[in-house]
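Design a sequence for this backbone.
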């Protein structure tokens, strides 16, 4: 986990997720991976990132289990970077991020759209609660502390409908 995560946020899933993929260049590398690119020179050409910075970002993605590094040529040894199951599980997040931005643009302003490859129809991803079918953007959904929450997390996400505990003692 990145040292940039505050001590009090180490148990927060949003903070820890951002420590894995929160950097601009990391998201662009993942975007390339989802488009089928796997090789260092492809990332370098597509993203325009310096080789030292790209090396650093790829190493972090490998260390965090998002990508795996494997040789595709022996002499000279060349490696490719392939999404792991954990890495592939990030695709819906990037899809929703792109859709969020596209919602702010008129259709002619959109440089990239998500389409159904069988029909060519543009699609708009939604994130819903499967039990109710309601969008999780609805204000009825809120974060609360979970079973593993520490004291700070419990204090932050205390149910506002619950009155504060009274001090014991006197």
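Sequence:
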């Amino acid at each position: 986990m990145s040292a940039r995560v505050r001590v009090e946020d180490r148990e927060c899933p949003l903070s820890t997720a951002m420590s894995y993929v929160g950097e601009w260049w990391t998201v662009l590398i993942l975007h390339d991976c989802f488009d089928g690119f796997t090789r260092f020179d492809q990332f370098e050409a597509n993203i325009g990132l310096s080789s030292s910075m790209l090396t650093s970002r790829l190493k972090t993605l490998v260390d965090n289990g998002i990508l795996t590094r494997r040789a595709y040529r022996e002499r000279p040894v060349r490696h490719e970077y392939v999404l792991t199951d954990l890495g592939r599980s990030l695709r819906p997040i990037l899809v929703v991020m792109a859709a969020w931005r596209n919602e702010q643009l008129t259709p002619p302003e959109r440089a990239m759209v998500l389409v159904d490859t069988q029909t060519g129809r543009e699609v708009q991803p939604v994130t819903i609660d499967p039990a109710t079918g309601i969008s999780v953007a609805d204000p009825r959904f809120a974060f609360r502390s979970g079973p593993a929450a520490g004291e700070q997390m419990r204090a932050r996400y205390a149910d506002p409908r619950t009155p504060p505990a009274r001090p014991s003692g006197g």
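The longest strand covers residues 67-73.
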